[in-house]
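Saturday, quiet lab. Running sequence design on the structure tokens for the scaffold JK sent over.
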């Protein structure tokens, strides 16, 4: 099993969710986050005053999938979330040692 953590632009969330559902992903966790990377923030003007925005809004997706599906999930997120502009996001893939479904006590891939 693999844990896939992806950060994407918020307006891409629904499109990515639909694409992942289309390849058989049955669930994911979504968190609204703020961060910075290469773009390192920007300045905006609000009511005539200029101020720095050091953290950019992003959405973090967390999915646990079978190892066989992991490459397809990464490719789907990359293709769907990509705008070609700075700040499109990052994807990390980690190994998962164990999973347990609380309701039924099913374990590992049965718990997914």
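Result came back. Writing it out in full:
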């Amino acid at each position: 099993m693999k844990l896939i953590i992806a950060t994407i632009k918020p307006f891409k969330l629904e499109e990515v969710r639909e694409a992942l559902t289309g390849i058989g992903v049955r669930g994911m966790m979504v968190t609204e986050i703020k961060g910075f990377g290469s773009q390192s923030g920007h300045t905006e003007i609000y009511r005539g005053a200029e101020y720095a925005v050091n953290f950019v809004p992003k959405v973090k997706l967390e999915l646990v999938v079978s190892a066989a599906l992991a490459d397809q999930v990464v490719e789907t997120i990359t293709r769907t979330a990509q705008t070609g502009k700075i700040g499109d996001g990052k994807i990390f893939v980690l190994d998962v040692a164990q999973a347990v479904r609380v309701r039924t006590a099913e374990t590992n891939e049965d718990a997914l």
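Notes for JK: The chain has two helices and six strands. Residues 2-111 form a domain with the Alpha-Beta Plaits fold (CATH 3.30.70.120). Ask whether to fix the surface positions before the next round.
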